[in-house]
Design goal:
The chain is an alpha/beta fold. It has one domain: TIM Barrel (Alpha-Beta Barrel), CATH 3.20.20. The protein contains 14 helices and 13 strands. The strands form 3 sheets. Strands 10-9-8-7-6-5-2-1-11 form a 9-stranded parallel β-sheet. Strands 3-4 form a two-stranded antiparallel ribbon. Strands 12-13 form a two-stranded antiparallel sheet. Helix 3 runs parallel beside helix 5. The longest helix is centred in the C-terminal third of the chain and has 17 residues. The chain is globular. The protein starts with 11 loop residues before the first strand and ends in a 19-residue tail after the last helix.
Length: 373
């Protein structure tokens, strides 16, 4: 059994998602996270041009505006200039978007381009000339990036891929790029931009190959890994608990706490990650079929992983929003959403809230239902 969780350490959840249009959802998220010891959270936004929404940035802007001391925001790029039938006078190049998000007071960027289904759908290599100016701008501004690159190895194996992954469209056959091909493209970007500040989501899917994870961190000193659970991560860590603990102690300055907590779900991943880091011995968790072996890290290591590393990469506190620039961005997005025929104009809705108005009646349901994320 796991012991009692600590109350003497600051925690920032660096990997959360606000995937609903309900304005009060962020209130409930912060309340639930606080009940589990989390003082602030980082919202990672998503790009959704194929669904008519451009991105989920409007919800993120509102959450950060509502809770400026508790919410960090990593914005998503608008990819409409790359193919949507819209007035390109309303679109910005990818590097110009990075500069605008920095000026607005966002805390960083989130990219899903390395997830295999997104990589296949776009047809764009991660080291493509299309993305190159964006990475150069992120590097120059020292603007941090949370980047999802890869997926669990079993998703490429028809016999091992779990049913829930199949249902999500994450069963990868030969028509998808291989995991190694995606890694090669990604690491080419890191070679070109050695000062790029990157947090790879889900431990870069290297939990079953700690020597390779160590080699990556040794090679690229500005790379960090987040501990956001994947279905395989803590199962793999438990296979070799002594090696895992040694890795975490050696690279304690390169690991970032995250949970993948979503506003519609229970924050149980927070408990799983905290128990793994704080307790020694085996414990059970309702999300996992088998017991997990905790690694019982010392307090100094926990302080770095829970908050210190993220604050060094991003900032000690959330950056203040420039409300006028945010409203201008939401106005631009609102017109784009009209042109993309979005079922609900999230940009106009949240701009009205931020500007002190009362929006028209709003059908409150998730804009992400049925999408393959």
């Amino acid at each position: 059994m796991a012991g009692k969780l600590r109350t003497d350490v600051q925690i920032i959840d660096a990997h959360t998602h606000l995937e609903t249009t309900q304005p009060e959802a962020v209130d409930a998220m912060l309340e639930k996270e606080a009940s589990l010891g989390v003082a602030a959270m980082n919202l990672l936004m998503l790009s959704l041009p194929s669904s008519g929404y451009v991105s989920t940035n409007p919800e993120g802007f509102y959450a950060k505006w509502r809770y400026p001391d508790k919410v960090y925001l990593f914005a998503a790029l608008d990819y409409t200039p790359l193919g949507a039938d819209v007035d390109l006078r309303l679109a910005y190049s990818l590097p110009e978007q990075v500069r605008r998000f920095w000026a607005m007071g966002c805390d960083g960027m989130k990219m899903l381009t390395g997830k295999p289904n997104y990589r296949k759908e776009s047809g764009l290599a991660l080291d493509s000339i299309v993305f190159e100016p964006c990475f150069a701008c992120l590097e120059a501004l020292e603007f941090p990036l949370v980047w999802h690159v890869g997926d669990p190895e079993e998703f490429w194996d028809a016999e091992l891929v779990p049913q829930w992954a199949k249902d999500s469209g994450w069963a990868y056959d030969s028509t998808f790029p291989s995991k190694e091909a995606i890694y090669a493209e990604c690491h080419h970007v890191l070679e070109r931009h050695p000062k790029l500040k990157v947090i790879f989501a889900h431990f870069h899917f290297l939990s079953d190959d700690l020597p390779r994870a160590a080699a990556l961190l040794d090679r690229f000193p500005n790379v960090c890994l987040d501990l956001t659970p994947g279905s395989e991560m803590y199962r793999n860590f438990t296979k070799r608990p002594d090696e895992t603990r040694e890795f975490f102690l050696k690279y304690q300055g390169r690991l970032v706490f995250g949970s993948d907590f979503m506003s519609r779900g229970e924050p149980s991943p927070i408990v799983l990650v905290r128990q793994f880091l704080e307790t020694e011995g085996r414990f059970t968790h309702p999300n996992l079929e088998r017991p997990v072996e905790g690694i019982g890290l010392p307090l100094d290591s926990l302080k770095r992983i829970y908050a210190g590393n993220y604050q060094r990469i991003a900032s000690p506190k959330p950056r203040p929003l420039d409300e006028s620039l945010v409203l201008a961005e939401l106005d631009r997005m609102a017109v784009l959403q009209d042109q993309l025929k979005a079922p609900r104009n999230t940009a106009r809705f949240f701009a009205t809230l931020i500007d002190g108005g009362i929006p028209a009646d709003w059908e409150r349901e998730s804009i992400l239902d049925g999408l393959m994320l």
